[in-house]
Automatic annotation (TrEMBL):
This is Hemoglobin. Pfam families: Bac_globin (PF01152). InterPro entries: GlbO/GLB3-like, Globin-like_sf, Globin/Proto, Hemoglobin_trunc. The keyword Phosphoprotein does not apply. CDD domains: TrHb2_PhHbO-like_O. The lineage of its organism: Bacteria, Pseudomonadati, Pseudomonadota, Alphaproteobacteria, Hyphomicrobiales. It comes from Rhodoblastus acidophilus (Rhodopseudomonas acidophila).
Length: 126
């Protein structure tokens, strides 16, 4: 991902909107039922964590690592069965959120490509 994506997309306000839309899509997209079931009923905590992670990951303020250390995303998700369908459902939710809130087409494409790599790497089941 290129430098300055955080600023190009609109910073914290856009990250907040993307995360809120991502989880709203998880609540409504039929294919996302299985990944929604992997989460607690109350999503407030996980939303805060994802907002901090995405802030840092896109080149914004380091909000995640001072509190939680190195991301180790795959290790943190090993307790969940993540197969191709789960990966695709996660990406469908993220694609909807990116489409709704990232106006800069190049930044959106960069984010989508990076998130697709991350989602693919998270798979741990057939």
């Amino acid at each position: 991902m290129s430098e300055g994506v955080y600023q190009r997309i609109g910073g914290a306000a856009t990250i907040d909107r993307v995360v809120e839309s991502f989880y709203a899509a998880m609540e409504t997209l039929p294919q996302a039922k299985t990944i929604r079931a992997m989460h607690a009923d109350n999503l407030d905590g996980v939303k805060k964590v994802l907002k901090k992670y995405l802030s840092e990951w896109t080149g914004g303020p380091a909000l995640y690592s001072p509190e939680r250390g190195a991301p180790r995303m795959r290790q943190r998700h090993m307790g969940f069965s993540i197969d191709n369908a789960a990966r695709d459902a996660w990406m469908a939710c993220m694609d909807a959120a990116l489409d709704a809130h990232i106006a800069d087409l190049q930044a959106r494409a960069e984010l989508r490509a990076a998130m697709k790599k991350l989602a693919d790497w998270m798979r741990n089941a057939e």
